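Researcher: Batch entry, complex prediction.
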Amino acid sequence: MFQRNMGGRRLPAVGASSEPQGGHMKRRAFLRAGLTGAGVAGIAAAPLAAPLAGATTARGLDTLFNPRRPGRDYNGPVRLSSNENPLGIAPSARQAIIDGLDEANRYPGATGELVREALVARLGVKPGQLFFGSGSTEILRIASAAWAAPGGRLIYAEPTYEDVPRYSQPFAYDHVTVPLTSDYAHDIDRMREEVAKSSAPSVIYFCNPNNPTGTLTATGPIMDWIRDEGEQHLFLVDEAYFELADDPGYETFVPLIERHPNLIVARTFSKVYAMAGIRLGYGIAHEATVQRVLPFATRNAPNHVAGVAAVASLADDEFFAKSVKTNDEAKAIMYDALAQLDIEVLPSHTNFVMHRIKGELATYNERMFEAGFNVGRPFPPMTDWSRLSMGLPSDMEKLAEVMTDFRKKDWI
Amino acid sequence: MFQRNMGGRRLPAVGASSEPQGGHMKRRAFLRAGLTGAGVAGIAAAPLAAPLAGATTARGLDTLFNPRRPGRDYNGPVRLSSNENPLGIAPSARQAIIDGLDEANRYPGATGELVREALVARLGVKPGQLFFGSGSTEILRIASAAWAAPGGRLIYAEPTYEDVPRYSQPFAYDHVTVPLTSDYAHDIDRMREEVAKSSAPSVIYFCNPNNPTGTLTATGPIMDWIRDEGEQHLFLVDEAYFELADDPGYETFVPLIERHPNLIVARTFSKVYAMAGIRLGYGIAHEATVQRVLPFATRNAPNHVAGVAAVASLADDEFFAKSVKTNDEAKAIMYDALAQLDIEVLPSHTNFVMHRIKGELATYNERMFEAGFNVGRPFPPMTDWSRLSMGLPSDMEKLAEVMTDFRKKDWI
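Model: Structure tokens for the complex:
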């Protein structure tokens, strides 16, 4: 009944295949289409830098470029728009990736266990209190999906990071936005009032320090609230910028997970470890909560490359210190420049600062782009502010000159 | 009101921090914990190969090893259990990854657009007809989540790939399994009958070629069904092994997406392109369907490393041909060996074969493990069969010897 020598018998068939039909083809034709070569295939055969040079005319593709890279002739704007770390990944992470490429054909489960071990040692949590995602954005997605329930409210600050509202869109959440206080902190009292309006399982999202403002909310009152509140509501605390914040009123929420299964803390390797392109985030929660959310997670996270880079990065104290110091230096330069220009700025505990602008944000952004800097995007209702990610200190010095020039033109 | 020189004022605080509290700490203490060094941090500072050598005693961690790698002293079993490509990633992909590491600190949106362009040229689809995931497993997750509806049925073969049933678990699906036919094909007639029992939006999952059996279902009758069926039901067609299949009765479903918004085709770079650890899959569907499912996708896919590797791989016809040829050779060796031993085997159109065993599967797997090969796992109800992934041809020759020896012992 079964064809026992299928493999052998099929070999002579390699050359025989049908013609491509309407752009869709079987395997052999699929291969041949590559050989005869549509444009992209030919472009892609060259080293990576070459095809991308051709793509720089498209503003959307500039994300791929780090213009400070030596030997690169790219003259596009400096990317100060996505809170990326301008240093690039740690040299130790780079070497770990290269060393690990021989295993990149294998599913990454074992690599993930090494990351788990490293985080368990670093954070003092149990192995079952961690789950992984493709960036912390996936941790936010997973939580949004897992807590969705009829009548549930999603309560978050305005403005704050957009991913949780975005991911919750397909579900039956009532969205409730609560403006930041006059100090640009989360308005805990008003958020508590909103939660009290419904007993259905709600999600309360805190991004702390907050994106896009960079400001801190004192953690004590939120922790008090969590201790008081019933367990039906989820507290989703986004600590993406945790490693960059340092203030007496700021604490991580991780110690609370043991007693509060209605708490998920999200972290990322994108910021201090500069791995935004490599995608690794993790959630920290009670073991029961991890079990509850895992069915909503995508399997095989982290990817192998992210895993080996993370293990190396977590052990690389030198890079960590350099990353924090470089960011602090860049911010000091920018704060000084803004002070000299008497431009209002929020106290930042992150790798970006939010400062006032004059006139239309779109006009400001366009002028900055022409001056060589890609900054911000609109964060309603704060449309007369610009969110500015920190580049290298040398970038900030150049930007300070541009701002001084803008002032002369009355543009800022 | 605002602290204007925050960045500068914070710099002197670097040395000052509180003690770790119960394993949880602020940034500075977080750093110091690494310096004083829990075990894992110390281990991880060494090159990747070193810590992993220590991990080989744990059977679960063997996934990370490719024992055929020259100069590696690892003596664990050959991985023939997860349908991975034993060649490792394409040399062109390896180089593209290394060249692209300078941009790994940037969010990967631009890289993703390059992959999209390459696939548009290769597949003849429109840019808006593609969406990406962390492996094709995320495409299956996205579809399962997006189509969930009260009363909906999830209809799939038994046995088939487990991810769709797994991802649909949190949702209100009634799971309906339909045994494969006596030819190990999907039983289209019975699946149609099951769909007809409910008008609620159901999902019909086809893995074709099917995993774990490796067998094909003729595509014509399924296409006829899609053309007949109402649009409320989703046809989710998993073409993970598409590039390895070559049979007159087999066609891709991609040409149908234009007229059938209730169809999603899932593909992956894990198999023919050996990128299982790097995580890149894509879905192909009508533009309206892509818009419908995107809210369930994780943002920032593909990751940058997967993106540059994919662009290079799609242009690398030499690797594609080698990958297919190596797999075909390995299968020919295995089919010959199984024929000589008169062991029943299913006709495989993939990079694995399913063959009969004698006695308990657990015992067989343990004996194979001791003989140096990690094979299969249970796929109920086919528990007297073993799913065997293809390694290199040389692996298959050694495995054939082991099987001959097993026969002498009456173990197979």
